[in-house]
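Morning run. Coffee first, then this:
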Amino acid sequence: MFYTVVAAIARVLVKLVFRIRVYGKNKRIENLEENYIICGNHSSVLDPVVVAITHNNHIRYMAKKELFDNFILKFILNKLRAFPVDREGNSLSAVKKSLRILKNNEILGIFPEGTRVTNREESSAKGGISIIATKAKKKILPVYIDSNYRLFSKINIYYGDFISLDQYYDKKLSSEDYLKIGEEVLDKIYSLKEDFNEG
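And here it is:
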């Protein structure tokens, strides 16, 4: 209930200061019978908000643990049922939490670059997204957010086709394998804008 109310308020506020256009969402999501991981590029603190208000389902976000140091933010994030990840240390607990969320048939939200970046050349995917997707055996819904987030500017959001990593489900993978798969997922995310514009 709290998530629904906050999302509704955020939707109104964001649409007052930005012009949002969504590509691909409706036809991609309606026919999926199971939960999934929503995975996007990350250039602003507003990215999770924009995805949440253009997506019909409750997303359980993975968020950097530093955000939980602030009492007010911690209260809001806990109410929204987000959970912390240590980007510099051991992320095993975040992986386990992610797997429990997916096992509970909920939708998981991840920004695999781990921090905010402005272009693909600066970014580097972590192996976490591929570990979680292959262990949970869940599809990935890629989303690319294109905006500079200046007041009254345009935000274009591109939702792509679901990505399945089923060819890796029953294989023993190394850390290098997970990183490579993560980079491939990130490549697909960053290609969404071009794919839609060409179509």
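The chain has one domain: 2-198. Good start to the day.
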